[in-house]
Amino acid sequence: MNLREADFCIVGAGYAGLTAAYRLKQAGYTVVVVEARERIGGRVWTKYLTDGTPVDMGGTFFGPGQDRAYALAKEMGCETTPTPNKGDSGLMYKGKFHRYKGLIPDLDVLSLASVWASFQLLSAMSKQVPPEAPWTAEKAREWDSMTLAHWIDNPIHALTEPAKVMITALMMGLFTCHPSEVSFLSVLFHIAAAGNDIELQLKVEGGAEQDMVKGGMISIANKVAEKLGDCFVFESPVRAIAYDEHGVTVVSDKVTVKAKRVVVCAPPNLVDHIQFTPGLPATRAQLLQRMPVGRTIKFVAVYEEAFWRKDGLSGEVAAPDEALSISLDTSPPNNTVGTITSFCMGPPAVRLAELSAEERKTLCLKALMQRYGARAAAPVQYFEHDWGADPWTRGCHMAHFAPGILTNFAHVIRQPVGPIHWATTETSMYWNGNIDGAIRSGERAATELIEATKQAAADTYPYASSHQPIN
Ligand SMILES: Cc1cc2nc3c(=O)[nH]c(=O)nc-3n(C[C@H](O)[C@H](O)[C@H](O)COP(=O)(O)OP(=O)(O)OC[C@H]3O[C@@H](n4cnc5c(N)ncnc54)[C@H](O)[C@@H]3O)c2cc1C
After folding, report:
1. CATH code for residues 3-42+218-292+400-460
2. CB of 54 shorter than 6 A to ligand 1
3. Class of 104-202 in CATH
4. What is the pLDDT of residues 214-268, one digit of tens each?
């Protein structure tokens, strides 16, 4: 048996796990990071063209309010670059392409007003939901007993059919599942966790898609991993965690780690596959069974140049009634190539996954031709990734809460179980579901471990541990 000992073990090398490990190392502790894949990054995965141009297949953007993501980028010496977005946006609706300026596509006035009013209402209602404990909101039970679809179905909230189609598509973009799968309270929580303004999550300039990272989103993670050095064990899924008052034994395919504490930084839907001894407390175990994940297939088409800009198009196209509901220009800042990234999310992604790769490519390029013209038919490179088929994610972008889960189970979401602590973006109070949320969760978990260790030392010795807390 390959046995390693360390102060702490980290399960999963996504942004949550990497940040937790790094903050613990900075505080003077030893860590072992056990990762199922052969790479770091988890839901962030940057591929490279032969000339080194990065192509992000997973998490790509951040924007205002995502302070911990910007702070980590700065700390690691990584630069951000604005997401290209100059020019008119496009709306594909009922097979026709419309150009427009601004955030909300060019629908008829009543539909436009209805979408705008619904956004204002959702943002205002989110102020009644504390992101630290959404289950304590005064109307938590009422809102958690209905779905987002139920709210949208109310004609007051979507006055016209196009407004309903648009709101549904935008929400499917946020949750990557149908609104009938999501608790209305969880929608308000998600907005509250991201600055009480739903537009922040939908906008490029001034919103969550404002910036990309030079060299690709994995660059920051690479720098963190460099600083962590030789503490990784790759291609070694954790299968079992045994724990008692003396510590944890983490059993993975290649290594068994003995440590004082462990931070589990694997997505909740996969944590349920790890065998815990003794078994987890019932509410924690049942919460893990109740955090399903949406579905996303991401498509990236690479062209010799960003030719759509010559037509005055920003590249941003919303297509609420099509399978690929969003396309964006994600070309690198030096414009060596032009890149269009498209997303297929929720039920359409489930259907597209059943086609062959060739059929999906044909469908994708046909959609891009309708949006950008004939040149879109011939990308120099083309990539797709179905995150639902990826065994170490099994869905994306994040876990969501169906009705009844936030109010009945989620109060234990961050509660340690003895020496077992929990991170991943799903556990974050702020920017839950985003890279920023993952980083925050890793930092929070590291602080918990440091404090618990100091407390244990203070209980044992007359003087507290010499380890200094971060921040
Ligand atoms: C297509 C797509 C687009 C996105 N776009 C954006 C965006 O533009 N901006 C943004 O902020 N966010 C975006 N996100 C979300 C963002 O990527 C995630 O919120 C974030 O990366 C989650 O990080 P994490 O560390 O919490 O979890 P993960 O990245 O999922 O990391 C968990 C790690 O645990 C590992 N693991 C799982 N099971 C085990 C096991 N048993 N043993 C050991 N290791 C295990 C996994 O391999 C993985 O490396 C996107 C996600 C996707 C998929």
Report:
1. 3.50.50.60
2. no
3. mainly alpha
4. 999 999 999 999 999 999 999 999 999 999 999 999 999 999 999 999 999 999 9
Residue 37 Cβ inside 6 Å of ligand 1? The answer reads yes
Ligand 1 probe mutation, 32, 34, 43, 257, most atoms within 8 A of CB: 43
- Tell me yes or no: is domain 48-62+81-86+208-213+295-386 CATH 3.90.25.10: no
- Taking the CA atoms of the chain, what radius of gyration do you get in angstroms? 22
412 Cβ below 6 A of ligand 1 = no
pTM: 0.96
**CB-CB contact of 290 with 405 (8 Å):** yes
- Closest-CA residue, ligand 1 atom 19, reads 434
Which residue ranges make up each domain of the chain?
3-42+218-292+400-460, 48-62+81-86+208-213+295-386, 104-202
Among residues of the chain, what percentage have pLDDT more than 70?
Answer: 97
Query: Who contacts 369 (Cβ-Cβ below 8 Å, separation ≥6)?
Result: 376, 377
3-state secondary structure of 1: coil
Number of Cβ within a 10 Å radius of residue 127? 12
Q: For ligand 1, pick from 34, 222, 397 the residue to mutate: most ligand atoms within 8 Å of CB.
A: 397
Helix 161-175 × helix 184-192 angle, to 10°: 70
Residue 58: CB within 6 Å of ligand 1? Answer: yes
Q: How far is the CA of 223 from the centre of ligand 1 (A)?
A: 17
pLDDT (tens digit, 9 = 90+) per residue, 401-454?
Answer: 999 999 999 999 999 999 999 999 999 999 999 999 999 999 999 999 999 999
Contact 29, 262 (CB under 8 A): no
Give the C-alpha separation, 242 to 229, whole Å.
27
